[in-house]
Amino acid sequence: MNQQKETVRFVKRALLDFGLIEQFEARPSSEQAECLWWIAAAPDSSEEDARVARLLDDLAAGRPLPSRDLSSRPTGSGR
């Protein structure tokens, strides 16, 4: 549970730093929670960083938030 709290803080800080907090909070709470779960479930810190980067890219581009259902999709910015 502590890891989840750390992940949420890390993600919120990134959203604030990149000016995307409003876009994230405009999404349904269930979508937000699913995305945060997906990030927290990363097997290591480098994958967690990649998943946060993907979240930021997707928000900036107006795409759906990543989730465990999309975890097979490559991380990072794409088409």
Give a description of the structure.
This protein has one domain (2-68). It has 4 helices and no strands. The chain has helices at 2-17, 21-25, 29-40, 45-61. The N and C termini lie far apart (34 Å). The model is unreliable at 72-79 (pLDDT under 50).
Give a brief rundown of this model.
With 79 residues, the chain is mostly helical. Helix content is 63%, strand content 0%. It has helices at 2-17, 21-25, 29-40, 45-61.
Give a topology summary.
Blueprint: H1 2-17, H2 21-25, H3 29-40, H4 45-61
The structure class reads mainly alpha
Work out the number of β strands. Answer: 0
Mean pLDDT: 87
| Termini separation | 34 Å
How many domains make up the 3D coordinates?
1
Helix content: 55-70%
Rg calculated over all Cα atoms: 11 Å
Unreliable stretches, pLDDT < 50, 5 or more residues? Answer: 72-79
Number of helices: 4
Largest sheet, strands/sense/barrel: none
Order of helices and strands: HHHH
Strand content: under 5%
